[in-house]
Amino acid sequence: MKQNNLWIAALALGITLSAYGQQSGGGISPAMLQQIKQSYQGTPADKAIRNAISNNDINKLAVNRESKNNLDTYFSNKVESKGISNQRSSGRCWLFTGLNVFRAQAIKKYDMGEFQFSQNYSFFWDQLEKANLFLQGIIDTRQKPINDKMVEWLFKNPIGDGGQFTGVSDILTKYGVVPAEVMVETNSSNNTGRMSNLIGLKLKEYGLQLRDMATQGTTVADLEKKKTEMLGTVYRMLVLNLGEPPTKFTWTRKDAKGNPVETKEYTPQSFFQEYIGDDLKNNYVMLMNDPSRDYYKLYEIDYDRHAYDGKNWTYVNLPIEDIKQMAIASIKDSTMMYFSCDVGKFFDRERGILDVNFYDYGSLLGTTFGMDKKQRIQTFASGSSHAMTLMAVDLDANGKPKKWMVENSWGPGANAGHLIMTDQWFNEYMFRLVVNKKYITDQVKEILKQTPTRLPAWDPMFAEED
Predict the structure, then answer these.
(1) pLDDT tens digits along 91-111
(2) Angstrom distance (rounded) from CA 276 to CA 109
(3) Do 255 and 261 contact (CB within 8 A), yes or no?
(4) Cβ-based neighbours of 199, under 8 Å, separated by 6 or more
(5) Nearest to 249 by CA among 279, 272, 231, 216
(6) Distance CA 253, CA 251 (A)
(7) Catalytic site residue 386?
(8) Between 119-140 and 149-156, two packed helices, what is the crossing angle to 10 degrees?
């Protein structure tokens, strides 16, 4: 029944619209609608804009032509990189980004040409660990009602291909790494959606089974024994989709000219020690710029890790200028960083440029969009969506940044697969940076001694990057 007819029927029955869950004074009345309609003047300019928008993409019409002028691609400080990776139709940006940080270090250390670690190998173990994290979480919450907030969150997030740096540190430290050619990509690793959906569906089924068993009085020991059986099925599904991870392999390192240098037999752990050889869990710090929360505090996200025996995501929240100071120090020392941002905002895909002045929606639509970064976070208008590798900064004569460059994982394209962002864009849409502890300030060292404020796993600011 349409609203007007509903109103008439309600009056005839002597009841108000509030009985239908509506506020009688909060709707659009005829007088209010007339006032709203009168605010639109329908000028010739409005007609021209309406015609343009109805026949074209708004983004094409909103491009600020002035922003396309005078693009300078020079960077005063840049970490060299060789080759570009491609996550294809998957949400593995966090993994590609972390591995890109460490492959750049390996290339420099051994004077190699293009080289990549196997993303598929690390992704396999990430998926198995996430499956265990979910099932153990179900066991841990077995006495909670199914509509408990934590139980709901678990069933909504049984597994996924997104993540962040704690996943890199957890998975690489535990399982090691292998070169890309030792465990190559498959269709399911490049296109993760169907596999993740099927494994997630199976995990939800298993989760209900474990809860039913717990209700019947099954001991924790027997629940965990059943969990191990369930993980056997998940392991088989992963092998069928991604291949079986190697335990040993022989690999030949080549120099920058492609000449063979050394052939050795490795395990994934021995390869990790030789080509990364870093304490990823203790030598790196995540910095966050979230103006909606107090600065100079340590935070921890509950249950936000990739492995049950891994480390919860912990970060220091800082003003953007403090983060820049440490980022510049790292780049000057030829060290790339894990970086994440809201990549879809004001993005010139054709040129690979991120610039807050690229689109002028306000002039096109005759209004303003005035929320600041804090307000965008509070209203869910912005949040970290994609991880990339921060590798360059262009400093002016006073040492202030003018623009930044990241190595992306979307394959070759503009700027040979790299994105350039203005410093103003960096201020507005950069969220997370992981730096080696040797570049952090004394103030950050003191903050790390704090007992972290724990935030819930379902906090919307902390969705995984994909």
Answers:
(1) 999 999 999 999 999 999 999
(2) 10
(3) yes
(4) 127, 131, 158, 159, 234, 237, 238
(5) 272
(6) 7
(7) yes
(8) 150
Measuring CA to CA, how many Å separate 330 from each of 16, 375, 435?
A: 66, 30, 7
Q: Which of 93, 132, 241, 306 is catalytic?
A: 93
Q: Which two tokens stand for residue 420?
A: 């350039």
Provide the pLDDT for residue 6: 43
How confident is the model over 389-419, as pLDDT tens digits?
999 999 999 999 999 999 999 999 899 999 9
Q: What is the pLDDT of residues 150-197, one digit of tens each?
A: 999 999 999 999 999 999 999 999 999 999 999 999 999 999 999 999
Task: Specify whether the CB–CB gap between 355 and 425 falls below 8 A.
Answer: yes
Provide the whole-model pTM: 0.92
| Coil, strand or helix at 264 | strand
- Are the C-beta atoms of 313 and 304 separated by less than 8 Å? yes
Across the strands, what pairs with 190?
none
Residue 148: Cβ within 10 Å count: 12
Q: Is 64 a residue of the active site?
A: no
* Bridging pattern class, strands 297-301 and 453-455: parallel
Q: For the residues of 53-69, what is the DSSP string, one character each?
A: HHHS-HHHHHB-GGGGS
Q: How far apart are CA 316 and CA 290, in angstroms?
A: 10
Q: Give the angle subtended at the CA of 439 by the CAs of 290 and 305, to the nearest 5°.
A: 50
Q: Which strand (E) or helix (H) includes residue 251?
A: strand 249-254
CA distances from 269 to 98, 170, 280 (A): 17, 13, 14
Q: Calculate mean pLDDT across residues 5-24.
A: 47
Structure tokens at 37: 């309609």
Q: Which of 341, 386, 418, 436 is catalytic?
A: 386
**Residues in contact with 318: Cβ distance below 8 Å, sequence separation at least 6, in sequence order:** 287, 288, 289, 295, 296, 444
Query: What is the C-alpha to C-alpha distance for residues 7 and 297, in angstroms, rounded to an integer?
Result: 54
Catalytic residue among 197, 408, 427, 436: 408
Which residues have CB under 8 Å from 109's CB, separation 6+? 275
- Verify whether residue 259 is a known catalytic residue: no
Report the distance separating Cα 218 and Cα 212, nearest Å.
9
Residue 387: CB atoms within 10 Å: 33
